[in-house]
Amino acid sequence: MKYVAEYRDPAWARRLSEEVARVVTRPWTLMEVCGGQTHSIVKHGVDAMLPTGIELIHGPGCPVCVTPVGLIDAALHIAAMPGVMFCSFGDMLRVPGTRGDLLSAKAAGAEVRIVYSPLDAVQLASRHPERQVVFFGVGFETTAPATALAVAQAASRGLTNFSLLVSHVRVPPAMEALLSTPGCRVQGFLAAGHVCAVMGTAEYESIAARHRVPIVVTGFEPVDLLRGVLCCVRQLESGRHEVENEYPRAVRDGGNEPAQGWMKEVFRVVSREWRGMGILPGSGLGLAEPYARFDALLRFGIRSEGASPETECSSGLILQGRLRPPECPAFGTRCTPEHPLGATMVSSEGACAAYHRYRRPKGRT
Amino acid sequence: MNEVLEMQCPVPIREYPQVLMAHGGGGRLMHALVERMFGVAFANPILDRRHDAAVLPASSHRLAFTTDSYVVRPLFFPGGDLGSLAIHGTVNDLVMSGARPQYLSAGFILEEGLPMEVLWRVVLSMRHAAAQSGVMIVTGDTKVVDAGAGDGLFINTTGLGLIEHSLTIDPRSVAVGDAVLISGDVGRHGMAVMAMREGLEFESAIESDSASVAEPVLAMVRAGMELHCLRDLTRGGLTASLNEIAEASSMSIRITEEAVPVRGDVSAACEILGLDVLQVACEGRFVAFVPEAEAERALAILKAHPVSAGAVRIGTVESKDGAEVVAQGVLGRDRVLPMPSGEQLPRIC
């Protein structure tokens, strides 16, 4: 597969890892922001190719994982209402709320559908005028433009039976929050390549400058990741802290302007709760005033509970890179993909799911 | 095949374009359906006796006996349909013990309102698949459920096969050093059905691998090959099948991920949807565990049959402890392939 297979080339990967070993003179701690990168690292063993002292810690870049329990509960509440067709990406269906998940709501009779694009939900709304079609808009800046387009399309078609449960989040405020946490160990970031493909790199300049951390836009294949690490380590070793793009085949500095245009049209920046990290200012997207009528919480008169209840799940620490999945006492025993305590064990981008899938310790199921 | 496709749709369709409750009611309509559709399409000397039970000749051979129910949606997908699937699936289960498939039963659960023409197409497809697999459909059953109480059409098939060899083809026969062979590329059935069901449009349609694997397996048996274990890949894909065998045999299995054949379009579709191709369903693929010394000969036999022309070796049975499946990845690093935890859900981004 072009643009993928060549970036899994073992010889190229080995050369890069040797280069990192040549450049490095002391330990560095880097965070890969995106859960897709975490999965690739754990699957391919990229971390094991790095010299001792280079530590990769896993960041909060899993949109499913950071969705607060209160919003999942709101989703379950809406999905169970008569006449509602609740549409979501597949990832969300197994994420536990306070009581059950969307798959169990479906089993109990709710109409819950997996869609592959927010536009599919708009289509469903056109075809089923008798139903209230609700789309669970989850994701970072990567998926927000498609959701924005769906809302704009629903507006232009004059649909009154389409609404959006918004849980879109923005990456830079989360990076900012991590860096401002006392005891933060992150010395350099591998920024999420696909988020940057949409947003470009400008947002990261001030973070890099203020916190004096290198931020390297990085892709998802082993070679991409090693290029990101090498670039980051080179900066650290030479005392630089710049934004650099090591994923140029997907990311332009300015990002995807039309996509940004749709986001600006439909959304406004709001504060949002991240699971395990609390309410982060400016970290979410909500519907802009002209589109507020598509807000599912307003339409169904639901309040999303703010405070997430205490559970045994340590996903808050996992998402901040303060705990590694195998260090969690519940990992692989009381928390498994079949019986997850939290979203990090469910999502295809969750760090716990990555370790469980690829690094399951012997004797644990 | 052409002769079959051209078989004119019998009376029930012309008179009743859709299935009615009465088609399962035991009266004239049901009789017409059984006689003029199933009876015509599946005709053979045993079925033609129209007994309550099929009377089969006894044999001194061991028997293989299996059952499976088929509930795929959509009913028709590129490369197959519910009818061919219901034959291939049960035939392949029989073949996995090295049995020669002989007799099938066919139980139909029809949903009221199912277009008769759809049923006819499925029945013709079963007839064709049965003939190709060398099996007779010797008994059956029809039930009709209220509209809304089914998903169009469910089929159950039960199969009997003769074991005409003395091997114990079973996970317990798996031995350290066995070569692990796969009969062809993986993931096509699962992606074909998913693309069709979800309306995903890829550049070209991915067609299911649904097929009977009786011929290559029986050819290996006839060649006197020392087959230790066979397992077809169905739900949960290669990962599930290998884990089942590792667990049942208490052996560890090591495969080389790159050796597993995957078509480019299937791999791209899985990449887009965030699915692990090693966990995607197949319906015409199996793994074979044979002694190292037999590996080359087994591959030669497999490759001589179109359904397994893409056979390759993917791994080796390693040690007696652990009972794990380990895959060596593209970068040469090992990772455990645990038993899939359930249905794979497509990801967000």
Distance between the termini of chain A: 33 Å
For the record, the CATH class of the largest domain in chain B is: Alpha Beta
Radius of gyration computed on alpha carbons of chain B: 21 Å
The assigned structural class of chain A equals: alpha/beta
Please name the CATH topology of chain A. Answer: Rossmann fold
Structural class of chain B: alpha+beta
The averaged pLDDT of chain B comes out at 91
Shape of chain B: globular
- Count structural domains of chain B: 2
CATH class of chain A: Alpha Beta
Number of strands of chain B: 13
| Helix/strand order of chain B | HHHEEEHEHEEEHHEHEHEHEEE
What does this structure look like?
The complex is a heterodimer of chains A (365) and B (349). Chain A is α/β, with parallel strands linked by helices and 365 residues long. Helix content of chain A is 38%, strand content 19%. Chain A has a single domain (1-356), classed as Rossmann fold (3-Layer(aba) Sandwich). Chain B has 349 residues and is of the alpha+beta class. Chain B has 2 domains: 2-163, 2-Layer Sandwich (60s Ribosomal Protein L30, Chain: A); 171-336, Alpha-Beta Complex (Phosphoribosyl-aminoimidazole Synthetase, Chain A, domain 2). Chain B contains 10 helices and 13 strands. In chain B, helix 4 packs parallel to helix 5 and helix 7 packs across helix 10. Chain B is globular, with a radius of gyration of 21 Å. The chains are: A alpha/beta (365), B alpha+beta (349).
Short description:
The complex is a heterodimer of chains A (365) and B (349). Chain A has 365 residues and is of the alpha/beta class. Helices cover 38% and strands 19% of the residues of chain A.
